[in-house]
Amino acid sequence: MKDSNVSHKRIVTVGRFVQAAHDLLKIETIAGESGMERHIAEATINRPGLALSGFFEHFANRRIQVLGLAEIAYLAALSNEMRGKALRRFFDAKIPCVVVARNKGVCREIRELAEEFAVPALRTKLVTKHFVNGATITMENLMAPAAKMQGTMVEIMGIGVLIDGKPGLGKSETALGLIKRGHALVSDDITNLRVDSSGRLLGSPVSVTRYHMEIRGLGIIHVPSLFGVSSVIEEKSLDLIVTLTEWRKGQDDDATGDGTRIKEILGVQVPHVIISVAPGRDTVSILETAALDQKLKRLGHDAAKELDDRLITSMMGGRNGSE
């Protein structure tokens, strides 16, 4: 089963990158601020030494360009005329932005061409290697496929569980019961989902409702104020989806099967169980058990499969004994 609420790889502007990486990468804008809407098409970072020397074949012009110690020393060794020509060809190649590492001084030509071509010229205090590593991770996170899903997400003993279902079935109330038992809230009502560089599906709250829940008849509550800072978590891998449904008389629940389906979100397959909600049924305990069962499966223990194997062995033994 595939989820339809999916977005493709996200477009990242220079401005968005600078905002996301400002504190981590110690970035400041030197010139070309009018070009902050330029798109960065690839997450990998490029060091343009060959391009500066005049070789533009296979030039990765769609990436962030970084001038490290070697590139800066090369430019400084050129005459004013040669440096101006090399940098003009470089800026004219439709690059998204250029970053000067090690907090080095930015030469006049770079400042002037950044303004002329509306290409942001940035500077970082980090050494080139550390900037490239941090910028690559930041870009991969920014460009990762993302989606929003209706549902409340909690962490139950290390297992990230998204609770979805029709309105009025008690998703938030169930999550509240789990929080009271010592588990943690990730998000209420709407959950942001993204795929990280390792292929994991991660869930997080939308910024407006972070740390808050809406409980019918009670209103909005601030979870950490009531249950402590350990009752909330910023982000968690999504390991299980639980859909709550309304129980109806005569409904044939799958009481003996393993009950596990698969739901595909952003290309990642997530185990999916459906639980009927009925008066007197302890939904909180059932969800807690479902999470623990999923944890056991991840450790290689599948209770349903083990029972099937035992039944088959028992049946085969009985058949052999009768022959």
Your description of this structure?
The protein is an alpha+beta fold and 323 residues long. The chain has 2 domains: 132 residues, Udp-n-acetylmuramoylalanyl-d-glutamate--2,6- Diaminopimelate Ligase, Chain: A, domain 1, CATH 3.40.1390.20; 162 residues, 3-Layer(aba) Sandwich (Rossmann fold), CATH 3.40.50. Helix content is 35%, strand content 26%. The chain contains 10 helices and 18 strands. The strands form 5 sheets. The chain has a 6-stranded mixed sheet with strand order 10-8-9-16-18-17. A 4-stranded mixed sheet has the order 2-6-5-4. Strands 7-11-12-15 form a 4-stranded antiparallel sheet, with no helix packed on it. The longest helix is centred in the last third of the chain and has 20 residues. It is elongated, with a radius of gyration of 27 Å.
Unreliable segments (pLDDT under 50, ≥5 consecutive)? Answer: 4-8
The fraction of residues assigned to DSSP E strands is: 25-35%
The SSE order reads EHEEHEHHEHEHEEEHEEEEEHEEEEHH
Number of strands: 18
CATH topology of the largest domain: Rossmann fold
**How far apart are the termini?**
45 Å
Q: Indicate the mean pLDDT.
A: 89
